[in-house]
Write a structure and sequence with these properties.
By secondary structure, the protein is mainly alpha-helical. Helix content is 68%, strand content 1%. Strand 1 and strand 2 (327-329) form a beta hairpin. The radius of gyration is 22 Å and the shape is globular.
Protein backbone atom coordinates (compact mmCIF):
# COMPACT_ATOMS: atom_id res chain seq x y z
CA UNK A 1 0.00 0.00 0.00
CA UNK A 2 2.93 2.37 0.53
CA UNK A 3 3.78 2.28 -3.18
CA UNK A 4 0.11 2.52 -4.16
CA UNK A 5 -0.24 5.67 -2.06
CA UNK A 6 2.71 7.28 -3.86
CA UNK A 7 1.40 6.32 -7.32
CA UNK A 8 -2.11 7.60 -6.60
CA UNK A 9 -0.77 10.87 -5.18
CA UNK A 10 1.35 11.40 -8.30
CA UNK A 11 -1.75 10.79 -10.43
CA UNK A 12 -3.83 13.10 -8.25
CA UNK A 13 -1.41 16.02 -8.54
CA UNK A 14 -2.07 16.88 -12.23
CA UNK A 15 -5.81 16.51 -11.60
CA UNK A 16 -5.60 19.15 -8.86
CA UNK A 17 -3.35 21.29 -11.06
CA UNK A 18 -5.74 21.40 -14.02
CA UNK A 19 -8.94 21.72 -11.98
CA UNK A 20 -7.33 24.67 -10.18
CA UNK A 21 -6.64 26.45 -13.45
CA UNK A 22 -2.95 25.46 -13.50
CA UNK A 23 -2.32 27.37 -10.28
CA UNK A 24 0.48 25.91 -8.19
CA UNK A 25 -0.04 28.40 -5.34
CA UNK A 26 -3.03 26.56 -3.92
CA UNK A 27 -3.48 24.58 -0.66
CA UNK A 28 -4.55 21.37 -2.40
CA UNK A 29 -1.56 21.44 -4.77
CA UNK A 30 0.97 22.24 -2.02
CA UNK A 31 -0.62 19.70 0.34
CA UNK A 32 -0.42 17.03 -2.35
CA UNK A 33 3.24 17.86 -3.03
CA UNK A 34 3.95 17.49 0.68
CA UNK A 35 2.34 14.06 0.81
CA UNK A 36 4.19 12.97 -2.35
CA UNK A 37 7.48 13.90 -0.66
CA UNK A 38 6.54 12.02 2.53
CA UNK A 39 5.27 8.98 0.62
CA UNK A 40 8.38 8.96 -1.57
CA UNK A 41 10.67 8.93 1.46
CA UNK A 42 8.46 6.29 3.12
CA UNK A 43 8.94 3.97 0.16
CA UNK A 44 12.70 4.56 0.04
CA UNK A 45 12.95 3.89 3.77
CA UNK A 46 11.35 0.46 3.77
CA UNK A 47 14.03 -1.08 5.99
CA UNK A 48 13.82 1.81 8.44
CA UNK A 49 10.04 1.59 8.92
CA UNK A 50 9.19 -1.97 7.83
CA UNK A 51 5.55 -0.95 7.91
CA UNK A 52 2.81 -1.21 5.30
CA UNK A 53 -0.12 1.17 5.68
CA UNK A 54 -3.75 0.12 5.18
CA UNK A 55 -6.06 0.96 2.27
CA UNK A 56 -8.25 3.09 4.57
CA UNK A 57 -5.32 5.41 5.28
CA UNK A 58 -4.68 5.78 1.55
CA UNK A 59 -8.35 6.66 1.10
CA UNK A 60 -8.28 9.29 3.88
CA UNK A 61 -5.21 11.05 2.49
CA UNK A 62 -6.46 11.16 -1.10
CA UNK A 63 -9.97 12.31 -0.16
CA UNK A 64 -8.64 14.97 2.24
CA UNK A 65 -6.77 16.63 -0.62
CA UNK A 66 -9.85 16.48 -2.85
CA UNK A 67 -11.95 18.01 -0.07
CA UNK A 68 -9.49 20.92 0.23
CA UNK A 69 -9.75 21.37 -3.54
CA UNK A 70 -13.57 21.44 -3.32
CA UNK A 71 -13.30 24.13 -0.64
CA UNK A 72 -11.19 26.21 -3.01
CA UNK A 73 -13.68 25.80 -5.84
CA UNK A 74 -16.53 26.75 -3.52
CA UNK A 75 -14.75 29.97 -2.49
CA UNK A 76 -14.26 30.82 -6.16
CA UNK A 77 -18.05 30.79 -6.60
CA UNK A 78 -18.90 33.13 -3.74
CA UNK A 79 -18.50 36.88 -3.49
CA UNK A 80 -17.02 38.97 -6.28
CA UNK A 81 -15.54 36.71 -8.93
CA UNK A 82 -14.09 39.26 -11.35
CA UNK A 83 -11.28 41.50 -10.19
CA UNK A 84 -9.16 44.17 -11.78
CA UNK A 85 -5.94 42.23 -11.41
CA UNK A 86 -2.93 43.98 -9.94
CA UNK A 87 -0.44 45.45 -12.40
CA UNK A 88 2.94 47.00 -11.67
CA UNK A 89 2.00 50.30 -13.25
CA UNK A 90 -0.95 50.62 -10.85
CA UNK A 91 1.36 50.54 -7.85
CA UNK A 92 1.77 53.78 -5.96
CA UNK A 93 5.55 53.77 -5.43
CA UNK A 94 8.53 51.85 -4.17
CA UNK A 95 8.70 51.42 -0.40
CA UNK A 96 11.57 53.56 0.86
CA UNK A 97 12.78 53.19 4.45
CA UNK A 98 16.03 54.69 5.75
CA UNK A 99 19.04 52.53 6.57
CA UNK A 100 19.01 54.03 10.06
CA UNK A 101 15.54 52.56 10.63
CA UNK A 102 16.73 49.09 9.63
CA UNK A 103 19.67 49.44 12.01
CA UNK A 104 17.29 50.35 14.85
CA UNK A 105 15.10 47.33 14.00
CA UNK A 106 18.19 45.12 13.87
CA UNK A 107 19.35 46.32 17.29
CA UNK A 108 15.94 45.61 18.79
CA UNK A 109 15.81 42.12 17.31
CA UNK A 110 19.34 41.15 18.32
CA UNK A 111 19.20 42.66 21.83
CA UNK A 112 15.81 41.14 22.64
CA UNK A 113 17.03 37.84 21.17
CA UNK A 114 20.15 37.89 23.32
CA UNK A 115 18.10 38.57 26.47
CA UNK A 116 15.69 35.79 25.47
CA UNK A 117 18.61 33.42 24.85
CA UNK A 118 20.24 34.34 28.14
CA UNK A 119 17.01 33.76 30.07
CA UNK A 120 16.51 30.33 28.48
CA UNK A 121 20.16 29.45 29.07
CA UNK A 122 19.87 30.17 32.79
CA UNK A 123 16.84 27.89 32.92
CA UNK A 124 18.65 25.14 31.01
CA UNK A 125 21.52 25.24 33.53
CA UNK A 126 19.02 24.53 36.29
CA UNK A 127 17.71 21.43 34.54
CA UNK A 128 20.98 19.83 33.50
CA UNK A 129 22.67 21.75 30.66
CA UNK A 130 26.17 21.53 32.08
CA UNK A 131 28.11 20.66 28.90
CA UNK A 132 26.24 21.71 25.75
CA UNK A 133 26.25 25.46 26.35
CA UNK A 134 24.07 27.84 24.37
CA UNK A 135 23.79 25.53 21.36
CA UNK A 136 22.03 22.86 23.46
CA UNK A 137 19.42 25.13 25.05
CA UNK A 138 16.60 23.80 22.85
CA UNK A 139 17.35 20.23 23.97
CA UNK A 140 16.38 21.16 27.52
CA UNK A 141 13.52 23.56 26.79
CA UNK A 142 12.00 20.90 24.51
CA UNK A 143 12.52 17.59 26.32
CA UNK A 144 12.57 18.78 29.92
CA UNK A 145 9.91 21.43 29.36
CA UNK A 146 8.67 23.91 31.90
CA UNK A 147 10.40 26.96 30.42
CA UNK A 148 8.26 30.02 29.83
CA UNK A 149 9.67 33.50 29.16
CA UNK A 150 8.39 36.55 30.96
CA UNK A 151 5.60 38.57 29.35
CA UNK A 152 8.05 41.25 28.23
CA UNK A 153 10.47 38.75 26.66
CA UNK A 154 7.61 36.85 25.07
CA UNK A 155 6.16 39.98 23.47
CA UNK A 156 9.63 41.14 22.40
CA UNK A 157 10.09 37.82 20.62
CA UNK A 158 6.73 38.12 18.85
CA UNK A 159 7.56 41.69 17.83
CA UNK A 160 10.97 40.55 16.55
CA UNK A 161 9.27 37.87 14.45
CA UNK A 162 6.89 40.54 13.15
CA UNK A 163 9.86 42.71 12.19
CA UNK A 164 11.32 39.78 10.24
CA UNK A 165 8.08 39.36 8.28
CA UNK A 166 7.88 43.11 7.71
CA UNK A 167 11.41 43.24 6.30
CA UNK A 168 10.80 40.22 4.08
CA UNK A 169 7.66 41.88 2.76
CA UNK A 170 9.45 45.13 1.92
CA UNK A 171 12.38 43.27 0.31
CA UNK A 172 10.17 41.03 -1.87
CA UNK A 173 7.83 43.90 -2.74
CA UNK A 174 10.61 46.17 -3.98
CA UNK A 175 12.48 43.31 -5.66
CA UNK A 176 9.57 41.90 -7.64
CA UNK A 177 7.75 45.10 -8.55
CA UNK A 178 10.63 47.53 -9.01
CA UNK A 179 13.72 45.30 -9.44
CA UNK A 180 15.22 47.04 -6.41
CA UNK A 181 17.48 44.81 -4.30
CA UNK A 182 18.37 46.57 -1.04
CA UNK A 183 20.19 44.05 1.15
CA UNK A 184 20.08 46.41 4.14
CA UNK A 185 16.38 45.51 4.32
CA UNK A 186 17.40 42.00 5.40
CA UNK A 187 19.69 43.17 8.20
CA UNK A 188 17.13 42.56 11.02
CA UNK A 189 16.82 38.94 9.85
CA UNK A 190 20.42 38.22 10.88
CA UNK A 191 19.63 39.25 14.44
CA UNK A 192 16.81 36.72 14.64
CA UNK A 193 19.28 33.84 14.99
CA UNK A 194 19.21 34.16 18.79
CA UNK A 195 15.45 33.65 18.82
CA UNK A 196 15.85 30.55 16.66
CA UNK A 197 18.40 29.07 19.07
CA UNK A 198 15.86 29.30 21.89
CA UNK A 199 13.02 27.84 19.86
CA UNK A 200 12.12 24.31 20.91
CA UNK A 201 11.26 22.81 17.52
CA UNK A 202 12.27 22.81 13.87
CA UNK A 203 8.63 23.13 12.84
CA UNK A 204 8.88 26.83 13.62
CA UNK A 205 11.57 27.10 10.95
CA UNK A 206 9.11 25.62 8.45
CA UNK A 207 6.69 28.38 9.44
CA UNK A 208 9.26 31.10 8.70
CA UNK A 209 10.11 29.47 5.36
CA UNK A 210 6.42 29.00 4.52
CA UNK A 211 5.25 32.52 5.32
CA UNK A 212 8.22 34.06 3.50
CA UNK A 213 7.83 31.87 0.40
CA UNK A 214 4.07 32.44 0.16
CA UNK A 215 4.63 36.19 0.50
CA UNK A 216 7.03 36.08 -2.44
CA UNK A 217 4.83 33.74 -4.49
CA UNK A 218 1.73 35.91 -4.08
CA UNK A 219 3.60 39.15 -4.86
CA UNK A 220 5.14 37.53 -7.95
CA UNK A 221 1.83 36.02 -9.12
CA UNK A 222 0.00 39.28 -8.48
CA UNK A 223 2.59 41.27 -10.42
CA UNK A 224 2.23 38.86 -13.35
CA UNK A 225 -1.55 38.78 -13.35
CA UNK A 226 -1.68 35.25 -11.90
CA UNK A 227 -0.66 33.82 -15.26
CA UNK A 228 0.50 30.22 -15.39
CA UNK A 229 3.73 31.29 -17.11
CA UNK A 230 5.03 32.28 -13.66
CA UNK A 231 4.79 28.68 -12.41
CA UNK A 232 8.23 27.50 -13.59
CA UNK A 233 10.11 30.13 -11.62
CA UNK A 234 7.98 29.56 -8.52
CA UNK A 235 8.54 25.80 -8.75
CA UNK A 236 12.30 26.33 -8.87
CA UNK A 237 12.15 28.63 -5.86
CA UNK A 238 9.93 26.17 -4.00
CA UNK A 239 12.31 23.25 -4.63
CA UNK A 240 15.33 25.32 -3.59
CA UNK A 241 13.47 26.40 -0.43
CA UNK A 242 12.76 22.77 0.48
CA UNK A 243 16.42 21.83 -0.03
CA UNK A 244 17.56 24.82 2.03
CA UNK A 245 15.17 23.85 4.79
CA UNK A 246 16.48 20.27 4.86
CA UNK A 247 20.00 21.60 5.39
CA UNK A 248 18.84 23.92 8.17
CA UNK A 249 16.73 21.08 9.58
CA UNK A 250 19.78 18.85 9.94
CA UNK A 251 21.93 21.57 11.49
CA UNK A 252 19.30 22.62 14.02
CA UNK A 253 18.74 18.97 14.94
CA UNK A 254 22.11 19.01 16.72
CA UNK A 255 20.59 21.40 19.28
CA UNK A 256 18.10 18.80 20.45
CA UNK A 257 20.25 15.71 19.88
CA UNK A 258 18.14 14.18 17.10
CA UNK A 259 20.84 14.74 14.48
CA UNK A 260 23.47 13.27 16.79
CA UNK A 261 21.50 10.12 17.56
CA UNK A 262 20.34 9.41 13.98
CA UNK A 263 22.03 9.08 10.61
CA UNK A 264 21.12 11.78 8.08
CA UNK A 265 18.70 9.67 6.04
CA UNK A 266 17.08 8.09 9.10
CA UNK A 267 16.67 11.56 10.60
CA UNK A 268 14.90 12.85 7.49
CA UNK A 269 12.83 9.69 7.12
CA UNK A 270 11.57 9.88 10.67
CA UNK A 271 10.59 13.54 10.36
CA UNK A 272 9.09 13.47 6.86
CA UNK A 273 7.35 10.09 6.79
CA UNK A 274 6.62 8.79 10.28
CA UNK A 275 3.45 10.91 10.32
CA UNK A 276 1.88 8.66 7.66
CA UNK A 277 2.71 5.61 9.77
CA UNK A 278 1.25 7.37 12.81
CA UNK A 279 -1.96 8.23 10.93
CA UNK A 280 -2.33 4.59 9.90
CA UNK A 281 -1.80 3.37 13.45
CA UNK A 282 -4.26 5.91 14.83
CA UNK A 283 -7.03 5.22 12.30
CA UNK A 284 -6.80 1.45 12.78
CA UNK A 285 -6.70 1.60 16.58
CA UNK A 286 -9.63 1.99 18.93
CA UNK A 287 -10.48 5.67 19.27
CA UNK A 288 -10.02 7.33 22.65
CA UNK A 289 -12.33 10.14 23.71
CA UNK A 290 -11.17 13.73 24.11
CA UNK A 291 -11.09 15.48 27.46
CA UNK A 292 -12.59 18.57 25.86
CA UNK A 293 -14.10 19.48 22.48
CA UNK A 294 -11.48 20.00 19.75
CA UNK A 295 -8.57 19.63 22.14
CA UNK A 296 -6.02 19.10 19.37
CA UNK A 297 -7.27 21.82 17.03
CA UNK A 298 -7.98 24.43 19.70
CA UNK A 299 -5.32 23.54 22.27
CA UNK A 300 -3.58 26.92 22.04
CA UNK A 301 -6.90 28.69 22.63
CA UNK A 302 -7.61 26.49 25.65
CA UNK A 303 -4.16 27.21 27.07
CA UNK A 304 -4.83 30.94 26.75
CA UNK A 305 -8.23 30.62 28.44
CA UNK A 306 -6.68 28.64 31.27
CA UNK A 307 -4.04 31.33 31.65
CA UNK A 308 -6.85 33.87 32.00
CA UNK A 309 -8.33 31.85 34.84
CA UNK A 310 -10.95 29.81 32.99
CA UNK A 311 -11.74 26.35 34.33
CA UNK A 312 -10.16 24.43 31.46
CA UNK A 313 -8.55 21.02 32.07
CA UNK A 314 -4.82 20.67 31.45
CA UNK A 315 -4.31 18.85 28.18
CA UNK A 316 -1.14 16.98 27.36
CA UNK A 317 0.07 18.67 24.18
CA UNK A 318 2.23 15.67 23.20
CA UNK A 319 0.73 12.57 21.61
CA UNK A 320 1.70 9.06 22.61
CA UNK A 321 4.79 7.56 20.98
CA UNK A 322 4.44 4.61 18.62
CA UNK A 323 7.17 2.26 17.46
CA UNK A 324 8.33 1.02 14.10
CA UNK A 325 11.28 -1.13 13.07
CA UNK A 326 14.14 1.24 13.84
CA UNK A 327 12.63 4.09 15.80
CA UNK A 328 9.75 5.80 17.52
CA UNK A 329 7.67 8.89 16.81
CA UNK A 330 4.69 10.82 18.11
CA UNK A 331 3.59 12.67 14.96
CA UNK A 332 0.42 11.65 13.12
CA UNK A 333 0.18 14.07 10.15
CA UNK A 334 -2.08 17.10 10.24
CA UNK A 335 -5.14 14.99 9.45
CA UNK A 336 -5.32 12.80 12.53
CA UNK A 337 -5.97 15.59 15.04
CA UNK A 338 -9.07 16.67 13.14
CA UNK A 339 -10.37 13.10 13.01
CA UNK A 340 -9.90 12.70 16.77
CA UNK A 341 -11.58 16.04 17.43
CA UNK A 342 -14.51 15.94 15.00
CA UNK A 343 -14.75 12.45 13.51
CA UNK A 344 -14.01 11.63 9.88
CA UNK A 345 -16.92 13.60 8.40
CA UNK A 346 -16.20 16.56 10.67
CA UNK A 347 -12.53 16.43 9.66
CA UNK A 348 -13.46 16.51 5.97
CA UNK A 349 -15.72 19.52 6.62
CA UNK A 350 -12.87 21.26 8.47
CA UNK A 351 -10.52 20.75 5.51
CA UNK A 352 -13.24 22.01 3.17
CA UNK A 353 -13.38 25.20 5.25
CA UNK A 354 -9.57 25.42 5.27
CA UNK A 355 -9.40 25.33 1.48
CA UNK A 356 -12.26 27.85 1.21
CA UNK A 357 -10.72 30.32 3.68
CA UNK A 358 -7.32 30.26 1.96
CA UNK A 359 -8.89 30.76 -1.47
CA UNK A 360 -11.09 33.57 -0.15
CA UNK A 361 -8.02 35.26 1.33
CA UNK A 362 -6.26 34.91 -2.01
CA UNK A 363 -9.23 36.58 -3.72
CA UNK A 364 -9.04 39.37 -1.17
CA UNK A 365 -5.39 39.97 -2.07
CA UNK A 366 -6.25 39.97 -5.79
CA UNK A 367 -8.95 42.54 -5.23
CA UNK A 368 -7.37 44.85 -2.64
CA UNK A 369 -3.66 44.66 -3.46
CA UNK A 370 -0.53 43.66 -1.61
CA UNK A 371 -1.34 44.60 1.96
CA UNK A 372 1.27 43.43 4.46
CA UNK A 373 -1.41 42.12 6.82
CA UNK A 374 -3.16 40.04 4.21
CA UNK A 375 0.08 38.64 2.83
CA UNK A 376 1.18 37.57 6.30
CA UNK A 377 -2.24 36.07 6.97
CA UNK A 378 -2.35 34.03 3.77
CA UNK A 379 1.23 32.85 4.38
CA UNK A 380 0.30 31.74 7.89
CA UNK A 381 -2.80 29.94 6.63
CA UNK A 382 -0.61 27.92 4.28
CA UNK A 383 1.60 26.73 7.15
CA UNK A 384 -0.73 23.93 8.40
CA UNK A 385 -1.18 22.86 4.77
CA UNK A 386 2.58 22.70 4.29
CA UNK A 387 2.82 20.61 7.47
CA UNK A 388 -0.16 18.41 6.56
CA UNK A 389 1.87 15.29 5.75
CA UNK A 390 4.06 15.71 8.83
CA UNK A 391 2.16 16.96 11.88
CA UNK A 392 -0.75 19.11 12.99
CA UNK A 393 -0.09 22.86 13.04
CA UNK A 394 -3.52 24.47 13.20
CA UNK A 395 -2.87 25.55 16.79
CA UNK A 396 -0.03 27.77 15.50
CA UNK A 397 -2.63 29.78 13.56
CA UNK A 398 -5.43 29.70 16.14
CA UNK A 399 -3.52 31.30 18.99
CA UNK A 400 -2.92 34.67 20.66
CA UNK A 401 0.55 35.24 19.08
CA UNK A 402 -1.22 35.41 15.70
CA UNK A 403 -3.31 38.33 16.95
CA UNK A 404 -0.27 40.00 18.50
CA UNK A 405 1.67 39.61 15.25
CA UNK A 406 -1.13 41.14 13.19
CA UNK A 407 -1.28 44.11 15.59
CA UNK A 408 2.49 44.59 15.43
CA UNK A 409 2.52 44.32 11.63
CA UNK A 410 -0.26 46.90 11.43
CA UNK A 411 1.74 49.27 13.62
CA UNK A 412 4.91 48.72 11.58
CA UNK A 413 2.98 49.31 8.39
CA UNK A 414 1.40 52.52 9.71
CA UNK A 415 4.59 53.92 11.21
CA UNK A 416 7.10 52.93 8.51
CA UNK A 417 5.04 52.75 5.32
CA UNK A 418 2.39 55.31 6.36
CA UNK A 419 -0.34 54.16 4.02
CA UNK A 420 -1.56 50.88 2.65
CA UNK A 421 -0.42 49.55 -0.68
CA UNK A 422 -3.56 49.20 -2.77
CA UNK A 423 -4.91 49.13 -6.27
CA UNK A 424 -6.13 52.52 -7.45
Amino acid sequence: MNLLLLILLILELPVIYYINGKNIVSPSFIGCCGFILSAFVLNLSGDFFQYDIHAFTVFIILITLIIILLGEKFANKIGTTKFSLYRVEEQESIITISSFTYIVLFLFVIVSGYLYLQDAYVYSLKVGNSVGGYFSIARYTRFVGGYSPSTILGQASVLSESIVYFCMYVFFYNLVLFKKRNLVTLLPLTGFVFHILVNDGRSAIIKYFCVSCIMYFVIYKQANGWKKEANKKLLRIGICSVLAFLVVFRILGYRTGTSINNALWDNLSEYLSSGIVGLDISTTAEATGNQIFGQNTFKAIYETLRGWGANVPIINANREFFSFAQGTSNVYTGIDGYILDFGLIGAFFAFFLWGAVIKWTEKRVKKCGLSLIWLYFIGLLYYPVTMLSIAGATHVVLCMPTIYTIVYLWLLQQVLIYKRVKVK
